[in-house]
Write a structure and sequence with these properties.
With 469 residues, this protein is of the alpha/beta class. It has a single domain, classed as Amidase signature (AS) enzymes, CATH 3.90.1300. Helices cover 37% and strands 13% of the residues. A hairpin with a 2-residue loop joins strand 10 and strand 11. The two termini are 40 Å apart.
Length: 469
């Protein structure tokens, strides 16, 4: 029984409307346990909202209605019997379609996997089910988590709920669209170069890339194994933290949610302003929003000092080389023998690693190791580092329909360094969200969540949502 959340569940709770879907998971959990809500009712409301809104957002590839309702009924029976599986018990969760869900195709949005049905759940999905979560469906991704949005994939690209003709960011596009659009409170994405954080910056959600290796990747399609991470995209910091705790299986002080609500007074922030403030690509509104966000934390007593991060261009080039080399190695045989199994853009992206020599890749890995040491050194003097995530708000989607377009972000270095990073919305420009990154020491997810939650409590950016379609 999960401590502090148990309680009787009556057989006939009052009917609920779709308004319950906009409540935080903690409030939904309380209602599930005191009888004001059932998981079946919550799941039905979720399915109904998906049926209406996702005609516009296109965030789901597959909606698992029958299985979700059956799982919800079991969740209600467990609570009625006094078996409380934890903070996600009875809560619908969406899964990026790079992650195996037993009996459902894991398509990666690529022609060659249209009918590739998973034989068993990924380990992280097993943990979600053990924790009582309801797997509601599979969410959109760029093909093989490479480039997009691309209309030539198996499925059309997900839409940004804030502005439908702008990108969601990739490749966990469906996760961010579903959360921003109010379809689910939390979802599971992957991040090899920023794919949990980028969509969060662009869609105004919270993304949490954990320490490398904290969440198991068995049953998750690889892109670049030394860079691949799995983490939540959620509606708030608290919801991201409790989701990560279920995925990681951590307990006690190690939990990401263990410091939520604690003050940040006296804690030290290293503000890496040099990574974005003087870059010609950076929107002035992004710099202003980041400066204001750090000021909010300073006003709460955090001690802020500017720090100099290593040259971002050098690390970005190096990590891109590692990513291309590792992804090409995984796909080389299929690219040669079954080119028709790939869309054109994904094929070109994955084939880019062909031109890299082993010497170049080893040099890139050395640069990555040096970057990790540099970040560790900065975190020896500071509790967290803060910098920009994306240098612009979400870009118009039209140019992406013609060719791959580079989106300026400051994310990929932390994939090679393995540090945990929290993406938090900090403002808006012309109706589109802006986000920041909070970087912590390895396995210090609780600390970055503490800072993110403190910022959320002092502002209203994370509770703002776009008008429904």
């Amino acid at each position: 029984m999960h401590e502090g959340l148990s309680g009787p569940v009556p057989l006939s709770p009052a009917p609920v409307g779709s308004d319950c879907l906009d409540l935080p998971i903690a409030e939904l959990a309380a209602r599930l346990r005191d009888g004001r809500l059932t998981s079946v009712a919550l799941t039905r409301a979720t399915l109904d909202r998906i049926a209406v809104r996702d005609k516009t957002y296109l965030s789901f590839y597959a909606v698992l209605e029958e299985a979700a309702l059956a799982d919800a009924a079991r969740a209600d029976e467990d609570l009625a019997a006094g078996l409380d599986r934890g903070p996600l018990h009875g809560i619908p969760v969406g899964i990026k379609d790079l992650i195996d869900v037993a009996g459902v195709p894991t398509t990666a949005n690529t022609p060659g996997r249209a009918k590739t049905v998973a034989a068993q759940d990924a380990e992280l999905v097993r943990r979600l089910r053990t924790g009582g979560a309801i797997i509601i469906g599979k969410l959109a991704t760029y093909e093989w988590a490479t480039v997009g949005p691309d209309k030539s994939g198996l499925f059309p690209p997900a839409k940004n709920p804030w502005r439908l003709d702008h990108i969601t960011g990739g490749s966990s596009s469906g996760c961010a669209a579903a959360v921003a659009g109010g379809l689910v409170r939390t979802s599971i994405g992957t991040d090899t170069g920023g794919s949990v954080r980028g969509p969060s910056f662009y869609c105004g959600t919270v993304g949490l890339k954990p320490t490398f290796g904290l969440v198991p990747t068995s049953g998750v399609l690889d892109l670049a194994p030394s860079l691949d991470h799995v983490g939540p995209i959620s509606a708030s910091v608290a919801e991201a933290a409790i989701t990560l705790d279920v995925l990681s299986g951590r307990n006690g002080e190690g939990r990401a949610a263990s410091r939520l609500g604690e003050p940040v007074s006296g804690l030290r922030i290293g503000y890496a302003r040099n990574w974005f403030a003087h870059d010609s690509q950076t929107m002035p509104a992004v710099t202003a929003a980041l400066d204001a966000a750090v000021s909010v934390l300073s006003a709460q007593g955090a001690v802020v000092s500017e720090v100099e991060m290593p040259d971002h261009a050098t690390i970005e080039v190096a990590v891109a080389a590692i990513l291309h080399a590792e992804s090409f190695k995984l796909h080389a045989k299929a690219l040669r023998e079954h080119a028709e199994s790939y869309g054109r853009r994904a094929f070109l992206s994955l084939a880019a690693g062909l031109s890299l020599s082993e010497t170049e890749v080893e040099k890139a890995r050395a640069i990555g190791a040096s970057f990790r040491r540099d970040v560790d050194e900065l975190l020896g003097y500071h509790d967290v580092l803060i910098t920009a995530g994306a240098l612009t708000t979400a870009l118009p989607a039209a140019p992406f329909e013609e060719e791959a377009v580079w989106t300026p972000m400051r994310t990929i270095g932390f994939n090679v360094s393995g540090h945990p990073v929290l993406a938090v919305p900090v403002g808006f420009h012309d109706g589109l969200p802006i986000g920041m990154q909070i970087i912590g020491r390895h396995y210090a997810e609780a600390r970055i969540a503490q800072f993110g939650h403190a910022f959320e409590q002092a502002t209203d950016f994370s509770v703002q949502r776009p008008l429904p379609p």
